Amino acid sequence: MNEDLDTADEFAPPRADCMADSAGGLTFHVSDWVRSGPGGGPDEAGSADALVLVRRGADPGSGSEVRLPLEPAEDGRLQAALPSTVSLPEGRWDVHVAHGEAEPQRLAPGLNDLRSLVDRRPGPSTSPLSVRIPYPTKHGNLSLRSWRRAPHAEAGELRVEGGRLAVRGVLYRVERPSEWLAGAVAEARCRREPSRVWTGPLTVGGAQSAEFSFTLPLAELAEGWTGGEEAWDLWLRPADPDAAPVRLARILDDVPDKKDIFTYPAQPVAAPHGAAKAGPYYTTNNDLAVRVDSA
Fold this sequence. Notes:
This protein is mainly beta.
């Protein structure tokens, strides 16, 4: 028998399989967890077992921790449920297990069943849209990426050609989406100089539709470009001055980090300060933006 494998198995961290539902909830199934009892030896499962979510970078005591009870499941593993109704603020959450007052222990990722998240289309509602996607960190631990948005503008097909960016999307979590969209406009806001804003009209899919589209001439973003990388964030701004604008993002699928996966070609654009290029990309939060840079 391989001694190295025996050692690795003995100290292997507990792991969790995750199953997502179409409403945005997650179920965790924990295995390979050896608890330490009062005498230092293994302890049995009990009511004090919990799955602990810790928000990365948050100050302790400010809603930075969520504890979910772990209960025995029929297959002998422990199970915890994170329903979509449990508020989980946006951010990255590290997943642990804990027994009583013992120090929480990080969980390793197991198998993920995220089929219900692929091409997810939420039903009509005005409640916040909950999105949670489990993923393995670069250190081999289990974490969650969480979003909670209302309204939400989901970016769909992007086409980059002829110096233009064509965007299609769907608006969720407003009472009457077609009325909200009827007087709305698309905006590109320069991150470096907030006073620079491009505004363009929206095309709405129909009288009762939540679908929208717009076309952004990329050269117009480069008119005030003075060199270096410049980012523009994409928004929808409603006609009602009292209503908040909505950030465009792509979160309704099973991909937690899109920046390096969903890539698009940059188009050459004319600029007063030299040759430039511009094209769309997704930020680290999966929000949609446009980058203008030197060609």
